[in-house]
Amino acid sequence: MAPAETPEPSGNTGSDRNRATAEAILPLLGGAANIASIAHCMTRLRLGLHDRSLVQEEPLKALPAVLGVVEDETYQIVLGPGTVARVTPEFERLVEAERTTAPATPEAAPTADELAERGAAIKAARKARNATPFKLFLRRIANIFVPLIPALIGCGIIAGLNGLLTNLHWLPSLVPALAALASGFMSLIAVFVGYNTAKEFGGTPILGGAVAAIIVFPGVANVDAFGQKLSPGQGGVLGALGAAVLAVYVEKWCRRWVPEALDVLVTPTLTVIVSGLVTLYGLMYVAGEVSTAIGDFANWLLANGGAGAGFVLGGLFLPLVMLGLHQALIPIHTTLIEQQGYTVLLPILAMAGAGQVGAAAAVYLRLPRNGSIRRTIRSALPAGFLGVGEPLIYGVSLPLGRPFITACIGGAFGGGFVGLFNQLGAAVGSTAIGPSGWALFPLLDGNKGLGEMVVVYGGGLLAGYAVGFVVTYYFGFTKTMLTELNAPAEAEAAPAAEPSAVPESGPVQVRTGADDALEPVAEGSR
Asked: Which of 41, 155, 254, 408 is flagged as catalytic?
């Protein structure tokens, strides 16, 4: 039976459904007074909560619109692409309306001591698992680069369109204009990285951008460093990141020691001149060498490792995402795009999503009597084909266990297929990061013609679909799992913490407790 918290409004319009979803979610989070911040990404509603002990997690997971929940720095409710962008404004309006009419203190049945004790336990457990210095650093790196992804996607698609028009000799008068549109952002990406870096590390964003702008200024060609002339853009995004971090530390030092009367003049000047000179006479050269090494290693790995390297990369990407380590790849992708116009790693890593789609299709056929999981798959597959894997991960494969592993195997074979062709000389890359699946086709670029790249990438997707499906169909379930999951009545009565528990009214949910060792899948990694 569907939960009573989300009645279908009369008229059944999209706006009514989104408002009903928001109205169902808010009380289960402790009301408006418990909401500290509201944001959303491509698939998740991200909330800052004053007291997480007020969250009624099991009823929240049981809502039909909720595909899963993730506890991280923010409390994240997985609603899926498209849905989250429509539910968030309704949720914000509800919170604002409730705050204007209700007391500021959230409703809480437990005593203050009980709340404090429960809250302390939750915070201690989360900090011990998620707040390691390395993961916090990677999260900061992601916060710097993720806001740049929309521009990378837009400019990448324009670059692909421009290349198509050039190859077909169509609209020659439009080609230079499209080239300018596609290249303008990339020529100044170091400035945006510097701005975001300073903002993330607690400095003045515009000072971070000003120091990073030195890297792309044409006049640096007149500067000698380490016995050679610098090149505009040398060091790229890595140099910009380092320069902006240095600027933040110089600025903070100045804020401590410079008298307030002189702060407005001295602090910006010292910040730019000190960090700028270090950038010119050190960081640009070092970052340039590191950037070159990254590009050379990526090309060498696929040229020599081929299918083996692709197999490993494609198979391990989902586990990397689960551990939050995929964020370290974002500056590497950006560096490769900046160097050679495309990243050869992304098409291989995108095969993980293909394995996920194939596994989900097999689960759909193997569980003909489980209407809950089949509904989840039907709603999540379109997004899965477009490279948004979170609904399938949180709604299907990860809670079931084995299908997550078989999805990784499908991704490994897809990655091996693309890697093999890289070794044979057909390097297939992407001009932007973010999209995968079918959404990556408009962004394909490489050292061969568009037709050949489409065939190689498409062949990798088909390999991932096929292997993910076959391995999941034959090895994704034990006999006990099939018996339990194909018995809706039994599944509904089973405890929520068991992996085989499938509420009849909603998708399979990620377990907490025993699954606490698993890290959430992060944004931008589909």
From this structure: 41
